[in-house]
Amino acid sequence: MDAFDLHAYPPPDSEHRFVPHSLPHLDDEAVVAAGRDFAAHMTNRRSIRMFSDRPVPREAIEAAVAAAASAPSGAHMQPWTFVVVGDPDLKADIRAAAEEEERENYEGGRIGEEWRHALAPLGTDWRKPFLERAPWIVVLFEQRLGTREDGSTFHHYYVKESVGIAAGMFITALHTMGLATLPHTPSPMAFLTSALGRPSTERPFAVFPVGFPAPECVVPDLERKALDEVSVWLE
Ligand code: IYR
């Protein structure tokens, strides 16, 4: 069979169902214009550390999680759990635990000279008040294994890649909704698994404080790499 034979897919003898799929037709100019508009929109996204205390409706987080959970995943295993924390006491616990670890990072020498130099423009230190101030913290867990109702487990595939894509889509959804976040990677934050009642088959992947930027919010004056620095074209 020809490699380009459309009729090689789906396999004619498959026992599984395939359903039609299409996208609205756009002409080439519209495709390019939509891409440029979206790129401009995304270029406006920034990670923030200065959140407003303005509440965010639960429904907004639900929508962002639904968008993220539409991500592609290895063998469509959807190996993610989004734990949405709005409880102030739990947020305070997460902050306290994060600060304990980060104090060790910054003041206990876990961050070496080169790393310290790389972080300097971001102006970070061990203090993480935003983990309490943001109205929601979404902790994204990767499911190392799947679990059946009877408690038995099965393989998940490309877990980090899948969860990383879902994380990107979560960030994109929030930005599109006028919300901001900071992807905070738990460095040792294993305590989150038990503190948030997750099974031992799951590991925290990233912590996302979510909210509106504070009116006085500032961000580091960073530049993004140009297209020709991030892409290579073989035409
Ligand atoms: N986890 C620390 C340090 C840190 C590391 C990286 I890589 C960053 O991009 C930002 C911070 C902290 O959260 O401060």
What does this structure look like?
With 235 residues, the chain is an alpha+beta fold. It has one domain: NADH Oxidase. The protein has helices spanning 28-43, 58-68, 88-107, 113-119, 130-133, 159-176, 191-195, 227-230, and strands at residues 80-85, 136-143, 145-147, 153-155, 180-181, 202-211. The strands form 2 sheets. A 4-stranded antiparallel β-sheet has the order 1-2-6-5. Strands 3-4 form a two-stranded antiparallel sheet. Helix 2 (58-68) crosses helix 6 (159-176). It is globular and about 60 Å long. The protein starts with 27 loop residues before the first helix and ends in a 5-residue tail after the last helix. The mean pLDDT is 95. 3-iodo-tyrosine (IYR) is lined by residues 102, 105, 119, 122, 124, 184, 187.
What is the element layout, followed by pairings?
Layout: H1 28-43, H2 58-68, E1 80-85, H3 88-107, H4 113-119, H5 130-133, E2 136-143, E3 145-147, E4 153-155, H6 159-176, E5 180-181, H7 191-195, E6 202-211, H8 227-230
Antiparallel strand pairs: 1-2, 2-6, 3-4, 5-6
Fraction of residues in β-strands: 5-15%
What strand line-up does the widest sheet have?
Answer: 1-2-6-5
Examine the coordinates and then state which fold CATH places here, giving the name of the CATH topology. Answer: NADH Oxidase
Tell how many strands the DSSP assignment holds: 6
The major pleated sheet works out as: 4 strands, antiparallel
